[in-house]
Amino acid sequence: MGDVEATGRGARWEEPALPLQEPPEGGHIHGRLGVVDVDGPSMVPTLMHGDRLLCHYGARVRPGAVVVAKHPLRQDLLVVKRAVERRDGGWWLLSDNPHVESDSRDYGPVPEELVLGRVLCRIGPRPAWLAPARWWSGALRLLPRNAALRLGGR
């Protein structure tokens, strides 16, 4: 599938050791997992160049989730962005890095069919859970801030 624009440039697919799959050309793999490598600075400070992510394809997207999507103008390119909100025409996807504007500010809402899945966690080099369940967010508020951040809190 080639490069994935995760933060201004892209992220690339790696052949995983587990039976994980990338999405087929025509759509989603519901309930399947895939590995994406981040290539570029657009999601800094959340994600760094070289981070390896585990993505759940076909998972429900909620505002605030980090997602993998096909670039709306270059569908051979995958992007990793934060889903901010649903708008007419699709999801408004933004970079976490305020200095990178290769996101919906540049190309508008991304149609839902191009949002392939939700990033669950960073599996390397610094493992971190990125998609806590709704109940988890409430539990994180009870922890000291530095512990909550390590477990995916904000």
From TrEMBL:
Location (main, coarse): membrane
InterPro entries on file: LexA/Signal_pep-like_sf (IPR036286), Mito_IMP1_subunit (IPR052064), Pept_S26A_Sod_Ni_maturase (IPR014124), Peptidase_S24_S26A/B/C (IPR015927), Peptidase_S26 (IPR019533)
Membrane-spanning parts: none
Gene3D superfamilies attached to this UniProt entry: Umud Fragment, subunit A (2.10.109.10)
Domain Peptidase S24/S26A/S26B/S26C: 28-102
An individual GO BP term: proteolysis
Pfam families assigned: Peptidase_S24 (PF00717)
Keywords from the named record: Hydrolase, Membrane, Protease
Region Disordered, annotated ranges: 1-32
Cellular location(s): Endomembrane system
Protein name per Swiss-Prot or TrEMBL: Nickel-type superoxide dismutase maturation protease
Organism in which the protein naturally occurs: Streptacidiphilus monticola
Gene that produces this protein: sodX
